[in-house]
Amino acid sequence: PEVAPVSQQGGTRGHREQNLLIARGAVDVECLSIGPRVQRARMDMADVPVLAGDEMRRIDLEVTDKLGFVRVMESVATRTADFVAYTLKHPKEATVLCVAGKGNNGGNAITCGRILACRGYTVQLLLSHPPHDLKGIVGEQLQLFTQFGGTVVDTATAAATVRAEKESCLVIDGLLGTGITQSPRGAIAETITEVNSWGARVLSCDIPSGLDHLTGEPHPPCISATWTLNYHVVKSGQVAEAARGHVGELWTVETNLTFTHFGEEFDQRLQRLYKDSPFVLIRSA
After folding, report:
1. Crossing angle, helix 55-67 and helix 69-82, to 10 degrees?
2. Going by C-beta distance under 8 Å and a sequence separation of 6 or more, which residues neighbour residue 165?
3. How many CA atoms lie within 13 A of 107 on its CB side?
4. Cα(10)–Cα(264) distance, rounded to whole angstroms?
5. Which member of 37, 94, 98, 250 has the greatest number of CB atoms within 10 A?
6. Alpha helices in the chain (DSSP H)
7. What is the DSSP string of 62-91?
């Protein structure tokens, strides 16, 4: 479908001009309720709002500052854990391997891992950096992860797990988040290269690590995901043609930031998008 820019008013501090994309045309969108029933609906892509520009990142930071990082992180991590359990229907006997950086998206992956461990899943965690490099809330989430049954592993152990369970192991990518404008370097780049070499099934939190969320350009090395679970509102880079080989199957999920400060018309489109389920399939791989 084609996309065309439109303008909306909104913001956390008075009116703000936002760069939005509204896709024109029709597409099959698959809405899965949390449970066994599957619903299919043909939706006009005008009801799938896409943010063009860096507005989502700015709103994310501003609203997170008001709600607190812990509330937002727990919210998106719970949604991610629900997606693993109820949409992907990942079997509990198969390992979930979380791969996390030291930033906020790493915190999302670590928190999701802890929630899954509490639900009886076998969860391992591979960190791109030493544990003492994880500061603040991300460091606190790492402590909770180990306290609630998660296991931190090294690269060799992670690779051995994937080799042993290649068809069933699920890797959750939380190495990098939005805001990438150049190729990853150092330990992050090494970990992305390692993950891609496994050929495992990968679920990326919000965006594949190394992908530009504005343009969809993959900055090598960039994670090649099987699924990407977008948080809040779909970003322009996720639906760009250049991103298709890295995003995989693109889903979006409603969170506590979804209906915040986008203007009335945009909010109505979001509410229609999520009216049947918090999880919506936007584009197949």
Report:
1. 110
2. 94, 95
3. 19
4. 8
5. 98
6. 55-67, 69-82, 104-118, 136-147, 155-164, 186-198, 244-247, 264-273
7. HHHHHH-HHHHHHHHHHHHHHIIIIIS---
235 DSSP 8-state letter: E
**What does the alpha-carbon distance between residue 75 and residue 245 come to, in Å, rounded to a whole number?**
28
Rounded CA separation 205/200 (Å): 16
The SS3 assignment for 263 reads coil
Listed in sequence order, the residues at least 6 apart from 125 whose beta carbon sits closer than 8 Å to its beta carbon are 97, 98, 99, 100, 110, 113, 142, 145, 150, 151, 152, 153
pLDDT for position 42: 41
Instruction: Provide the 8-state DSSP code for 133.
Output: G
CA distance 21 to 3: 6
Amino acid at 247: V
pLDDT digits (tens, 9 = 90+) for 180-230: 899 999 999 999 999 999 999 999 999 999 999 999 999 999 999 999 999
Distance CA 251, CA 143 (A): 30
What pTM was computed for the model? Answer: 0.85
Residue 221: asked if its preceding bond is cis (omega within 30°), the reply is yes
CA distances from 140 to 108, 112, 172 (A): 12, 14, 19
